[in-house]
């Protein structure tokens, strides 16, 4: 069986050289453990932090050690009462064809409810992040203007639609016209800004948010965020979900450049982690599942085929190659 290992730690942009594909014996499940054959594995921006040798909320990956990932897979062997061969399960496993985990660390996926891949996207960690980040942290009122950056990604696309359902006017920020069209034509965003082709971002937000910005759900940081902060309204709230524009930075950026804006607006800026909501994940999944069934929540997945292409899929996140959730398909049911 094959697994990816971290071969070296990147400086700046990671490259293929940082990863090594090795062939190892298929692992044997111990007492209470389950052997899972990977169907889909998730590549996520936060993994960039795990390539670094620094303390963070996610532990660094060890050099020459297998790398973890959210996986949906088929149970091959089980020494745990909760699972039997043929079940579909999800959990934190490996960038690999097979992996073992304790049954307590896995969750059953019902293949009749939705395509199993959604357990890594809209009905998984990114969807839950969007749900709590929008309903609990940003928490818009009807009629508010909400800006979402990284809006065509896994988290942002769900966050924007959750804001729409709360009665907000939603403006998305994304890196291509195709993505912007998807947001406004398919997902019901009220407007979208292509930050890569817009010279004057401040002017673009002034135009698309004529009543100012009441809530900002930030996935990216950097120049996009500077420009949105310039339009914040009195008592605005900023939910800091991610800062992907900074993840490959080799120098500490000069810190938020628009702090004076907070005095003027009495705005609140709050970061959050999806893990803080662990005991309410079930609630979020029920709500998100209900929205999909009602036709109020749409989602997209970008699927790269083959475990051998997993690093490519990961690196593509920093180039904006994905629309919606980026997955790697490793096996079939
Ligand atoms: P996405 O699906 O949004 O993929 C990343 C996207 O980021 C790309 O498609 C690209 O889209 C955009 N991007 C890449 N580089 C830049 C840049 N320099 N400036 C602006 N945009 C850029 O990933 P996720 O939805 O999984 O994650 C989104 C954010 O949420 C990340 O920052 C992630 O770290 C964070 N996150 C936080 C969690 C938490 O608990 N706080 C949990 C999960 C995710 P484009 O074409 O638009 O540039």
From TrEMBL:
The keyword Acetylation does not apply. Keywords: Oxidoreductase. Residues 1-17 are annotated as: Disordered. Residues 15-328 form the Enoyl reductase (ER) domain. It comes from the Archaea. InterPro entries: ADH-like_C (IPR013149), ADH_N_2 (IPR041694), ER (IPR020843), GroES-like_sf (IPR011032), MDR_fam (IPR045010), NAD(P)-bd_dom_sf (IPR036291). PANTHER family: PROSTAGLANDIN REDUCTASE, PROSTAGLANDIN REDUCTASE 1. This is NADP-dependent oxidoreductase. The lineage of its organism: Archaea, Methanobacteriati, Methanobacteriota, Stenosarchaea group, Halobacteria.
């Amino acid at each position: 069986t094959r697994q990816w290992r971290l071969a070296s730690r990147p400086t700046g942009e990671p490259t293929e050289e940082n990863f090594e594909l090795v062939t190892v014996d298929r692992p044997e499940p111990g007492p209470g453990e389950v052997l899972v054959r990977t169907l889909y594995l998730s590549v996520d921006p936060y993994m960039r932090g795990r390539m670094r040798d620094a303390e963070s909320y996610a532990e660094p990956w060890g050099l020459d050690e297998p790398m973890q990932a959210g996986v949906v897979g088929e149970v091959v062997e089980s020494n745990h009462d909760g699972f039997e061969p043929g079940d579909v399960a999800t959990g934190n496993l490996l960038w690999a064809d097979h992996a073992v985990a304790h049954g307590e660390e896995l969750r059953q996926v019902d293949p009749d409810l939705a395509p199993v891949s959604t357990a890594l996207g809209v009905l998984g960690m990114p969807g839950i992040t969007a749900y709590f980040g929008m309903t609990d942290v940003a928490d818009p009122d009807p009629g508010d203007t909400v800006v979402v950056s990284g809006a065509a990604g896994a988290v942002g696309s769900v966050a924007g639609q959750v804001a729409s359902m709360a009665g907000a006017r939603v403006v998305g920020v994304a890196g291509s016209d195709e993505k912007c069209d998807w947001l406004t034509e398919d997902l019901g965003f009220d407007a979208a800004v292509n930050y890569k082709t817009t010279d004057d971002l401040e002017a673009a937000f002034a135009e698309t948010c004529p009543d100012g910005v009441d809530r900002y759900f930030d996935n990216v940081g950097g120049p996009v965020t500077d420009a949105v902060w310039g339009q914040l309204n009195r008592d605005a709230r900023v939910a800091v979900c991610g800062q992907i524009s900074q993840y490959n930075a080799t120098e500490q950026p000069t810190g938020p450049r628009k702090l004076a804006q907070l005095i003027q607006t009495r705005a609140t800026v709050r970061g959050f982690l999806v893990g803080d909501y662990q005991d309410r994940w079930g609630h979020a999944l029920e709500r998100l599942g209900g929205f999909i069934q009602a036709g109020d929540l749409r989602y997209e997945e970008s699927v790269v085929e083959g475990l051998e292409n997993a690093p490519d899929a990961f690196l593509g996140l920093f180039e904006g190659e994905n629309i919606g959730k980026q997955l790697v398909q490793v096996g079939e049911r």
